[in-house]
Amino acid sequence: EIQLVESGGGLVQAGGSLRLSCATSIFTFEDYAIGWFRQAPGKEREGVSYIRISDGSTYYTDSVKGRFTISSDNAKKAVYLQMVNLKPEDTAVYYCKTRWKGNDFWGQGTQVTVSS
Q1: How confident is the model at residue 1 (pLDDT cuts 50, 70, 90)?
Q2: CA–CA distance from 58 to each of 1, 65, 83, 89 (Å)?
Q3: Which of 45, 59, 87, 101 has the fewest CB atoms within 10 Å, i.e. the most exposed one?
């Protein structure tokens, strides 16, 4: 079974930066796309960014473009989300997710709190 473990969340002031990590147990890492999602209190979970490992193509939701950068380390089988110029509205639990053969695999989440 695929396992994903997020880390790197924390409390930061507006304008600050954090780098989230998603460690995976995926064997054929290059065959996957891995995404970051977030869920704020009282809101639905939303997609933030994803990366297709095979060609490095990326996607960002409009609200984070220019502030967040997704990347991967194929040797470590990990995906990262560098977040700069954080805003209070970025406060949420951040999850990484992948899909294989129709099944979704989620991490446990890491809390990001941005104070104003």
Answers
A1: confident
A2: 25, 11, 15, 22
A3: 101
